[in-house]
Structures are given as C-alpha cells and as structure tokens.
Amino acid sequence: MRQPPKYLGESCFVLDRTMSGPYPAASILLDDPKAWIMKIRNSLKSAKVRDKNCRVVRRHGRVYVINKKNPRMKARQG
C-alpha cells in the first residue's frame, strides 16, 4: 500500500518520487480515504460562512469548523 503524502505546511505536500502517472497526488487521495486532509487556514471566517450548517468548535486547544450535514466542509485553524 502506498504511503499518504507528508504534510509540510499550508497546501504543501511531499510525494514519493517512485509514484507514476500524471496525477500521483490525486490517485493517492482517491485510493486511501484516510489520506484525505482537512484544510488548514490562518483565518476561519471564510470557512465559517461557506454554509449555514458550519459550526466553529474548540477541541484540544485548536479551533475547527465542522459541518455535520456536509463533512467535506471542514477546516482547522493554525
């Protein structure tokens, strides 16, 4: 099984050079649901207003935007 991409910062990932295909990152994320990554933002205001069901919660010292009706719309601050 392929390893998921390594997270280095906002929108930065390191991919294994041995992967083939025109879109190796997309194939990894589609093959392994555990490799899906939540958006990490400096400010959550734009993420909060994307949908009326978005809620801001604080867990373990971090601030998250969650959406129980559409789980794809989630983000973390910092």
What does this structure look like?
The strands form two sheets. Strands 3-6-5-4 form a four-stranded mixed β-sheet, with no helix packed on it. The chain folds into two domains: about 35 residues, no CATH class; about 40 residues, no CATH class. A hairpin with a 2-residue loop joins β1 and β2. The protein is built from two helices and six strands. It is an alpha+beta fold.
The DSSP helix count reads 2
Please state how the strands of the largest beta sheet are arranged side by side: 3-6-5-4
Total DSSP E strands: 6
Poorly predicted spans: none
Overall shape: globular
Question: How many distinct domains?
Answer: 2
Report helical residue fraction: 10-25%
Q: Which assembly state applies to the chains in this document?
A: single chain
Q: Can you summarize this structure?
A:
This protein has 78 residues and is of the alpha+beta class.
